[in-house]
Amino acid sequence: MRQRRRRRLGTAAVAALALCGLAGCGVSDPGPPTLTWYINPDSGGQAEIAAACTAAANGAYDIEVSTLPRESSEQRQQLVRRLAAGDSSIDIMSLDPPYIPEFAQAGFLAPVPAEVGARAIDGVAQSAIDGATWNDQLVTIPFWANTQLLWYKKSVAEAAGLDMTQPVTWDQLVAAAQAQDTQIAAQGRRAESLVVWFNALIQSAGGEVITQTADRPEDIQLGLDSPQSQRASAVMSEIANSGVVGPAFTTAGEDESVASFENGAAGFMVNWPFVWGRAKSGVEGGTLDQSVVDDYGWAVYPEVDPGTPSAPPYGGINLGVGASSRYPDLAYQATECITSDENQKAYFISDGNPAASLAVFEDPEVIAEFPMAPVIAQSLQQAKPRPQTAYYSEVSGSLQREYHPPTAVSPATGPDAAALIRAVLSGEELL
Amino acid sequence: MTTTAPPSTGSATAAPAPARHTSDRVRAERRLGWMLAGPAFAVMLLVTAYPIFQAIYDSLFSYRLTDPGNRSFVGLGNYWVVLTDALWWQSFGVTAFITVVTVAVELVLGFALALVMLKALKGLRPILRAAILLPYAIITVVSAFAWQFAFDLTSGFVNSWFAWLPGISAETDWFGQTGTSLLVICLAEIWKTTPFISLLLLAGLAQVPDVLQEAAQVDGATWWQRMRKVTIPNMKAAIMVALLFRTLDAFRVFDSVFIMTAGANGTETVSFLAYRQTIARLEIGLGSAVSVLLFLSVVLIAFGFIKGFKVDLAQARGEK
Description:
The structure holds two protein chains of two kinds.
Chain A: H1 2-23, E1 34-39, H2 45-56, E2 62-67, H3 72-84, E3 92-95, H4 100-105, H5 114-120, H6 126-131, E4 133-134, E5 137-138, E6 141-147, E7 149-153, H7 154-159, H8 170-180, E8 183-185, H9 192-204, E9 210-212, E10 221-222, H10 227-240, H11 254-262, E11 266-271, H12 274-285, H13 290-294, E12 296-300, E13 314-321, H14 328-338, H15 341-351, H16 364-369, H17 373-382, H18 392-403, H19 413-425
Parallel strand pairs in A: 1-2, 1-3, 8-11
Antiparallel strand pairs in A: 3-13, 4-5, 6-13, 7-11, 7-12, 9-10
Helix pairs in contact in A: 9-10, 9-18, 18-19
Chain B: H1 16-58, E1 61-62, E2 72-73, H2 77-83, H3 86-119, H4 125-137, H5 140-151, H6 158-161, H7 178-207, H8 210-218, H9 223-234, H10 236-251, H11 255-260, H12 270-280, H13 284-309, H14 313-316
Antiparallel strand pairs in B: 1-2
């Protein structure tokens, strides 16, 4: 009898412990609050910053990182689903700028405290501030800012007689590539990278995909019927059909572009600065010859029309704080640590992702590691974000559908894309 | 199970006790049956019926996940949008093409492999079965990646291996055009699921009575005649099940398209279309309408197969 009672008591105690374990009760010292930072995959730089900021917080909070999928569209999908469900574990998010308006409009982001916002934009590149803003309000904190450069082989440019100290146009590049029997590596794949390219072309021609944004999707005004849009389409079509883009052009993204630049097939390339870090790792790993890297040259993004400054693509990552976070104040405190100039510099050096803060580009250590830092800083000042709208994925998806393959782009593509975006936004057509 | 007696209406002496006794037993058995099957039934309702009804309900609204405030009832409007859209019909056509091509090839190949497995020497049989079934054990996404890498222009080996064939060179971009993209997608699907169909057909082949085969042989029937008159008619149910399962599966093709082309070059299937409306665009209403239409297509296919083959599964189970 006693044995049975003892057994019962034992069972009850085990059950209670198990329940407590599940519910997290009975822990007397919970320690500092843990802030979860959802990061985009990188080479470990964000995790290092999280550890450094945890140490610097002196017990005020711990930052844990949780890695999102590789593609930015998949990062958005995962975050949106969780945020829509009110997931309180999302404290800090590394956000790709084009999706910020959507997140802000949906109320997924905790408001930026005024004083934090003022400090966050102090000394930051204008394109990064623009990308962190929605409806004239700072809704995220600029962390690192990216921009595409024109990469070239010095030997090829020299042989073609191009003066790379001056801005060059796409037409000049095509002529040079044809003369030197080399390729131009651009991103013709049906993906976000194609929209990045088209947006840079239309903005460089002086136009915009969205001329007037609006809260109601039906009221958004588009600039795809404009002469600037036609000019951008003509340039895209000319490049795609010039015979200098390589056979895999319509399926090539950033990685394929850099591979053909490294293996010598392409003499010119438009791409993000990660290519420099990749080239140096290639040399260290023995997969790339030092002479290939020594031949690398860089310049500001090509112009559409001579004399009109180009509008290079703007990318990067901003930090958002989840509206359902249990610790929004601590999270914003943490973003100040994460985006400090020191950490931006460390991240630039460790992962090759340029800082949003312009002061970092003048740091001698940064310049020693990234000799193209001044060109990146200049490009960031010139860069233009992608269409700012809460319906960005619809706009981007429509552009991808109409402008792919770039070899088939014609003067009708702009109006077709505008009609599709209008129909999609008013719920009259599938995408 | 056939002993259930109707309530006795005869004379008072017509042994009511045994009737009640039987009835009690049946009732108890039924109760036990419900107790055993009930949880599974509830789980089925929860995981299958609930999402279906939720999708039907959602499909009646214009509803964007990031804009719940603007949710409005549109009735069957979403269905009208979907069914009048060229994209839906294009996706439907691509899906039907992949389904017909892959299922037809798989049926022929699968049948051949099933015959090989049936006739293989006893010692060889386990190794042969394992070898044939191996592709089916691989996760579809993994197999899709493997096929994508093989045919990829920069990292693939197909172009260098088959450059001697006319039309293939080092610069053949398989995922650059609709035709070649669909070819690779179909090849990947066929490679992956032929083992499944051959396994089902092997079960059917094993059920054909040897006596019939022997009788036909004694009558002087050739191999082809035996196949046509004895083997195939006797495994009709197995063929139907194999075709039905595979057709339903093929009609929902998603992974291969997602990995290899992401829907580019006109390779989008109906499942991919539903995914893009619901997950990428967050248009829950439109996406649900596409999903419901996909569901209805699948139901129609199943219904068509069962009616078309005129196979009575109850009879096949020996219940009639």
